[in-house]
Amino acid sequence: METHGKSYWAIHYLLLAAFVVFALFPLFWLLKVSITPNDLLYSEGVRLWPSRITADHYASVIAHSQFPLFFRNSVIVATTTALFSTLLAAAAGYGFSRFQFRAKFWIVGLMLITQMFPLVMIIAPIFRLLKPLGLTNSLAGLVIVYTAFNVPFASFLMQSFFDAIPKDLEEAAMLDGANRFAAFRKIIVPLTLPGLAATVGFVFTAAWSELLFALMLNSSSAASTFPVGLLAFVSKFSVDFGQMMAAGVLALLPVCLFFVFIQRYLVQGLTAGAVKG
Amino acid sequence: MTWRGAARAAEPYFYTLPAVMLICAVMLMPLLIGLTYAFHDVRLLDPMSGDFVGLEHFRELNADPAFWNALRNTVTWTAASVTLQFGLGLVLALLLNRLFPGRALVQLLVFLPWAIPSFLSGLNWAWLFNPVVGPLPYWLHAIGAMADADNLLSHPRHALWGPIIANVWWGIPFFAITLLAALQSIPADIYEAAAIDGAGPWIRFRRITLPFLAPTMAITILLRTVWIANFADLIVIMTKGGPADSTQILASYIFTQAFQRLDFGYASAVATVLLALLLAYAMALMVLRAALMRRN
């Protein structure tokens, strides 16, 4: 490829810098307000960095609020959802990758449709179905709902990982007398471990972020997830910006950790999901 | 069929059925129930409700100015968000498709918004627009875009742009990632051959890059359009559809009707209309695609 002149690269870097600033600025501001002492928040206005910083907001969020409980609820819901979804999706993705069967077209079609229709449409029916079962205001109810939402996308993602493993490997094992399930467990699963981990990461991120169903199904604060708790806090104490933003930064930590880990698989994840943010 | 043959034929179902059953129970069945709600009087707090009301909800909806306003907003919201996300995402993908020192780090940073939970993106941008803690009102005022340094989200005429900007911020990485993957699959020797033949950068972009990207562009834009039309989180968080329903889109209107008014029947009627519109959109695209295929 031809080389570009200095002026080309100047524009190139300028544009990239603009993208980086746009991407990071909101997060920077979140962090900045979360460490600004209350008395400086109003007196210093829109300064980019406060003249004094403090960890008070974090201390009071952790010690004197319900956020540790919400955080724990979210960790339980997101982790359990990620494990169940990945288990079901690994099986379904393996089925899609290794077999041609009559109902495949319809099953894939069903999974694609679930990615297209407005999910808000089923909020009310799901509430009416779960309520008599005692699954509203319960973490288990959310896990069931989130697992179903994430299985279609996770199945396509797992299928793409299985497709990358040559069929000969398990066929050789099966010739040696192992049945297919044993071949799956002993050969395929170890080879797809990175794929399984990436799927766990994607589903965890999605479950950690879900708001509307959590809002509708779990109204008691004992069963609130982090987004619901944060939103309730915002409408109740809407002047305590330092604490709100400290809580926001805490909500970011798990997803940022997962992001650094799954970003290698982003392309595969987004093309498998295609419709999932 | 022998036992062995039957077992063999059943094997793929052993792997796929657990997922299918869960999806049917938690997504397909509620969807069908939701469709029946649209024709019934279903209000959560009224134990006497539940009667069949036929097309009553749809007549009510036809006379509901908030519904028509939400429909118009859905078009603005979707068109503006998709156009900006796609345009900026394409520019970013082209920039990242070159080798330069530090590219891996830059990529990590510019893709980060994708990982931010939507509730936090919404709150974060709502705070940036808030004159008490956010800088944006002052900056917008300083460049003359706003008469006073106050909250964009409380201006009925322009408030929808708040969630749109948050959505663009959050959605650029999606397009950039998928388009970058498509760009990297274009063989480099095609560009070299074109450059030797004397084709300039613009010609190469139009004659090589665009045709190669076209299928990816088409499919991502189509799917994203549907997804964004359905995406209510940012609006529910940033404006709750206000001030005075001015930022309500159909998806957030459905949620408000179900969550705040607990009127499941009416919410389901609006949802049915949204579903029908999206189906019509998908159908129109398929017809268009078939027509184009015939012409070629």
What would you report as the Rg of chain B, rounded to the nearest angstrom?
24 Å
Integer average pLDDT of chain B: 90
* pLDDT < 50 runs, ≥5 residues of chain A: none
Write down the overall geometry of chain A: globular
What structural category arises from helix and sheet content of chain A?
mainly alpha
Percent helix range of chain A: over 70%
Low-pLDDT runs of 5+ residues of chain B are none
Q: Which fold name fills CATH's third level, the topology of the largest domain in chain A? A: MetI-like fold
Q: Domains counted in the coordinates of chain A: how many?
A: 2
How far apart the termini of chain A lie comes to: 34 Å
State the name of the first-level CATH class of chain B.
Mainly Alpha
- CATH architecture identity of chain B: Orthogonal Bundle
Biggest sheet descriptor of chain B: none
Mean pLDDT of chain A: 88
Account of the protein in words:
The complex is a heterodimer of chains A (about 280) and B (about 300). Chain A is mainly alpha-helical. Chain A is built from 14 helices and no strands. The radius of gyration of chain A is 23 Å and the shape is globular. By secondary structure, chain B is mainly alpha-helical. Chain B has one domain: MetI-like fold (Orthogonal Bundle), CATH 1.10.3720. Helix content of chain B is about 75%, strand content about 0%. At the A-B interface, helix 1, helix 4, helix 5, helix 6 and helix 7 of A face helix 1, helix 3, helix 4, helix 5 and helix 7 of B.
